[in-house]
Amino acid sequence: MKRLLPAAAFCLSASAALAQTAPCGGNFSAFMQQVAAEARARGLPQDAINAVVSAARQNPRVLRFDRAQGVFRQTFLEFSQRSISSSRLRIGAQKREQYASVFARAQREYGVPPEVILAFWALETDYGAVQGDFNTVSALATLAHDCRRPDLFRPELFAAIALTARGDIDPATTTGAWAGEIGMVQMLPQDILSKGVDGDGDGHVRLKTSAPDAIMTAARLVADLGWRAGEPWLVEVTVPENFPWAESGLDKKKTVREWARLGVEARGQMPGRRLKASVFAPQGRRGPVFMALPNYAVYQEWNHSFVYQTTVAYMATRIGGAQRYVQTTPEPGLSDDQMIKLQRILQRRGYDVGGADGVLGAKTRAAVQAEQVRFGLPADGWPTPALLARY
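^ thats the sequence. predicted structure below, dont judge the formating
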């Protein structure tokens, strides 16, 4: 998870923080000493600063992972079929029963149902089994020092120092994901600092070892991201052959009643007719089709990868008892090289696709859909070799 929220404690005025900001790049030890000076200016305890600075090491492996995020190139069917196994669904049911009282409290206090938290827990760390082996402060320091996205990760170092001062992490031994996320639901230090909940009552928020802490903290964060209690988030639907695909996509919304008039039917219970919703096909009109409701926006905030957010939202419905999506045969997609070629063509035609990186993101989908409309093709936003051959 890569959400960045302002820490609730140990803050410094904007002007003072700006004056103390450590520049990226250069000698790593000197950079960490500049971080230490800024941390002192922020009022962080010296012993916690010393512990973090002493533990931080530059890790080239972190940078390799940062530049090679292959999951974003998988299709929805590839990623979902790899991620949602019968074993994970079975373990999810067991965890739901094991921590029933904690899930009940989370739903009572934050309005977030168990299956939503369980799906994040499953996909982030396989229910805590795979939390990452990167030293957390080293990962954060490496990314803050790197000049690619320093402003994103420098604040996380100060949050890590604050968590150290609270006794919630140990800089020398706490490990997690390559991007600095910690614990069973993989949260960054700023999120833990500002949203952490002590679910087991021991006076600490320890997301690596305490399932109650992880469940309650995840529920609070999901609620703060705008979760609407009692409402669905994703429903698989079927559409008629004459469905107006140009009106599909996560950026286009109608009421459920309006979609129903166009022949959209739910596989299961149809959501409330007045809710606003989008209809989208992750892998084109020959693949599964879903209706995204307002709560889907929380998944978009949790992780910006279209494939990830759709998969975790869908998995939550499966844990909640939904059927497996309809077995279909989508039209073939593009290889990485073909996708890059298409994105360059779209750029030359004036579209902003967010860069020719081979990743089918929201901007590329929107451009593909516009070109499908221009060519008189079913405008489902799914790029195919047949579309590429038009150029």
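The longest strand covers residues 234-238.
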